[in-house]
Amino acid sequence: MPDAPFAALFDMDGVIVDNTDFHINAWLQFAQHKGIPLTRDQYIDHINGRVSADAMAYVFQRPIEPGELIVLTEEKEAIYRELYRPHLQPAPGLITLLEALKARNVPTAVGTSAPMSNVHFTLDGLLLRPYFDTVVDASLVKHGKPHPEIYLKAAEKVGVEPARCVVFEDAFAGIQAGLRAGMAVIAVATTLTRNELAGSGASLIVDDFIGLTVDAIREVVNKTVH
Ligand SMILES: O=P(O)(O)OC[C@H]1O[C@@H](O)[C@H](O)[C@@H](O)[C@@H]1O
């Protein structure tokens, strides 16, 4: 019997690249320029993995109208890109895994809360675009993570039912989004520790992609009870 098909959906920040410290420093610098106090813990609880509209509304404690949101987002992301650019590199083992997925014809997608400018910076900066069949970024959804829309849209675009998708995530908001989409979740312990991720609902926790095989991922999808 042929292997049942599945799709692999990758979060970007904290998963494709291990860049959370750079996002944290960028947010802290940005908030400081605006005279707003912000801590690392507040970042983890309210900003990590969320779309800019939600993150900015939290930082400024008010809804941000669309024009202002574009300006503020690019202000923050320009700081982030300057900080991270000299360190830009794919997560350990990622390219080997992406090549293995491609060789086995497993559909792949990126599902990220990031704006298109950061998707370009990361995926094109690292020449990763050809490894993914589709990308869903913040501009394509109404609701950011933890709402499941980003991952549901990614599943639809690759043509695989949610129950046959696995999501790679590092953030609580993203793990929730994957679970609420009815998908299996593999947590990557970059931003949070294995202990912090233990009760998150993820089926498997990995440190990075080294040694992770297509068959092991398929097993996670097969075994996840929805
Ligand atoms: O790629 P992800 O994890 O969905 O999230 C992207 C967002 O992740 C947040 O942690 C960053 O602070 C944002 O600036 C970024 O846009």
Automatic annotation (TrEMBL):
Top-level lineage group: Bacteria
Similarity comment text for this entry: Belongs to the HAD-like hydrolase superfamily. CbbY/CbbZ/Gph/YieH family.
Metal-binding keyword on record: yes
Keyword field contains Isomerase: yes
Catalytic activity annotation: beta-D-glucose 1-phosphate = beta-D-glucose 6-phosphate
Protein name: Beta-phosphoglucomutase
Taxonomic lineage: Bacteria, Pseudomonadati, Bacteroidota, Cytophagia, Cytophagales
Native species: Spirosoma endbachense
Sample GO molecular function, one term: hydrolase activity
Keywords: Carbohydrate metabolism, Hydrolase, Isomerase, Magnesium, Metal-binding, Phosphoprotein
